[in-house]
Amino acid sequence: MSDTLLTAVPAPAVKEVKETKAQRSERxxxxxxxxxxxxxxxxxxxxxxxxxAAEWSNLYFKWWGVYTQGDGLGVTGGKGxxxxxxxxxxxxxxxxxxxxxxxxxxxxxxxxxxHGRNLVDITTRQNIQLHWxxxxxxxxxxxxxxxxxxxxxxxxxxVVRNVTGCPLAGLDHQELIDASPLAVEAAHFLxxxxxxYNLPRKFKISITGCPLWCSYPEINDLxxxxxxRTVNGVDEIGYTLRVGGGLSTEPHIAERINAFVPQDKAMExxxxxxxIFKEQLELRESRTHARIxxxxxxxxxTAESMLVAIEEKLGYKLDPSPVSEDAVPDDVYRDHVGxxxxxxxxxxxxxxxxxxxxMSGDTLEALADLAEKxxxxxxxxxxxxxIVIANVKNxxxxxxxxxxxxxxxxxxxxxxxxxxxxCTGTEFCKLxxxxxxxxxxxxxxxxxxxxxxxxxxxxxxxxxxxxxxGQSWIADIGLEGKKIKKDGKMVDAFYFCVGGAVGKYAAIAxxxxxxAAAEDCPxxxxxxxxxxxxxxxxxxxxxxxxxxxSDDDLRAQLNGATVSAVxxxxxxxxxxxxxxx
Length: 581
Prior knowledge:
Blueprint: H1 21-31, H2 38-47, H3 54-58, E1 66-70, E2 85-93, E3 99-101, H4 102-115, E4 119-122, E5 128-133, H5 135-147, H6 180-190, E6 205-208, E7 222-231, E8 234-243, E9 255-262, H7 266-279, H8 293-297, H9 303-314, E10 338-341, E11 347-352, E12 358-360, H10 361-374, E13 378-381, E14 387-393, H11 397-406, H12 415-418, E15 420-422, H13 437-450, E16 460-463, E17 477-486, E18 489-498, E19 510-517, H14 521-535, H15 542-548, H16 551-559
Parallel strand pairs: 6-7, 15-16, 16-17
Antiparallel strand pairs: 1-2, 2-5, 3-13, 4-5, 4-12, 7-8, 8-9, 10-11, 11-14, 13-14, 17-18, 18-19
Helix pairs in contact: 2-5, 4-5, 4-10, 6-7, 7-9, 13-14, 14-16
């Protein structure tokens, strides 16, 4: 038999399967609880910005309320739908129920002046946000916050975020119950608790006894609002329950759960819902669809099945709600701006509207001084990016209003100023496409000049991209940042959403197919609102008018003539934003 050369046949190459963003996040979260690893950051602070591990920059820092700060260009210049990071960081400070003392306020102001280029933002979750922090600053700032009973922990990350509540809790004549102790208890229990460090995504809770629902339970993952029932002639205050609200790229109004939650069972119910969320493995398969709202939107859950799941966790049944529908507030602003007499005799709260939530550290320090000068040193942040000074003696109210006005913090304010909201924008955010803070301030001034005496409550929200951090989905007029070409140059522009609201008029804003360069927005909005003033029926408010007017007609009013609809930009999930030619 002849010899035969045998050639080894190479094994077929195994195609490497790329790890998805969700898989990477889940792997890293299982590997480490960031709340228990702060000593690593202390080491980074000693060795410099270049030593920061990628998993900290891209994930773990968020558990400490920290994001890498963008380079000022937003998403442009980056790749994969995210802009470039600078050497600096931004940090959110959690304020459960928005509660602040003058001492805490003064310390935060000092931090902003020393470490944050004298800049402070109030966020739409009653947080305070700092910018321009170095890696060494993160350690020093966190230590200072710990000393005054505050922390950035839980202000970001796949955890329970800052628990929001009514800024007038314990003070308001109309409240059914002071819910702030429950909000603070929930925040303290859920934050930095190792049981809850690894949720599928963020989880937002609102708890309020306020009849205005000023903490927006409709757009929270879990919302508790006070309700009264009468049993055998005895009144009892408890809570009604909503689950699954949220905005982002796919908005969803929370589902009302048919249950009455007694006060002494409220914490148990909160824990039950968070645990249900934690256990849903299907929500960990995609970062884009990882919020609890997707149980209702994509996985077939209903309000009834959620109640069954909650009761199974509790081990007992909850009584049905005493009403088939809640008494939903019709106020649009829901912000407590202005002077409100307190239930405590001789005292009032004074709520000041802060343009875009932005102020200097010097202004924040001055607020601490005013809270002590005219009140007892207690302040409250609000989800409309505003500030409330509490326990002001009635005889001091007018003087306080004058002092606030001198700081450009307005108590007596136009509808446009009062209803303005703006997210962080390209100035600091790596996902944003357009600048927002300065634009919102300029737009407000333009509208005040163009339509003085406008007689409607109006919410005019500006958000830097389609992620809706500026809550464009629930605004009367929501502007989403984008880029278009005008006169041969790429410029900031905004896509218009119209008719959004919470409360009695709850609705997701309609995408009406219109966009305009930033510099052209005031003229477009003026045309739209003059169209309302000209065409409105007797006693017809702005929301009713928008609801009965077609997208085509609204778009024509904005444009000044009939124009074809343009498509809204897709969400920036794994790809670049679309740039209009």
